[in-house]
Specification:
InterPro entries: NuiA-like (IPR056539). With 154 residues, this protein is of the alpha+beta class. The chain has six helices and seven strands; from the N terminus they run αααβββαβααβββ. The strands form two sheets. Strands 3-7-6-5-4 form a five-stranded antiparallel beta sheet, with helices on both faces. It has a two-stranded antiparallel sheet with strand order 1-2. A hairpin with a 4-residue loop joins strand 6 and strand 7.
């Protein structure tokens, strides 16, 4: 009988919630990246779309203080902005949106940037199959605005 009780105790302990948010990050496979440290523009709050991958994640608003008026055309600059130490690759909007599924998303980002700024896409790697796509532009106030979505690509 004591072995049954020991086994029950073992199962109970194994199923306890550790309460640690770092476990959530590790089990999801995504490192924590910064997405918002400024006011989110209205056009981005209305984006109701999902990025199609193995997980179909929703697009989330991005608003980051950059402070400069020139574009963020280098992946390393963007990696520093979002506090990411891994690989960041810039992809053209055309290559990212091949079938034009995300035209409304790109348009919302353009509006958030004041319609004149170029939209940029950055692929932020979180291992071999997990990544985040940031679709962003730079507004007149030097704030990087846009959306991001998590993806699993197997």
């Amino acid at each position: 009988m004591s072995s049954d009780q020991e086994y029950a105790n073992f199962l109970e302990k194994a199923n306890q919630d550790t309460g640690s948010s770092s476990n959530e990050v590790k089990t999801s496979g995504f490192a924590q990246t910064k997405a918002v440290d400024s006011t989110v523009p209205a056009p981005l709050k209305n984006v109701d779309a999902f990025y199609q991958s193995d997980t179909d994640e929703p697009f989330e608003p991005v608003a980051l203080k950059y402070g400069k008026q020139n574009s963020i055309s280098q992946g390393q600059i963007f990696a520093d902005l979002i506090n990411h130490s891994g690989e960041v690759e810039e992809i053209s909007v055309k290559d990212w949106n091949v079938k034009n599924h995300y035209a409304e998303v790109v348009e919302a980002v353009k509006k958030a940037g004041g319609d004149k700024a170029d939209v940029q896409v950055f692929r932020v790697a979180h291992g071999s199959t997990r990544c985040e796509y940031y679709i962003v532009t730079l507004n007149d106030e030097g704030i990087v605005v846009g959306v991001k979505a998590k993806a699993v690509e197997s």
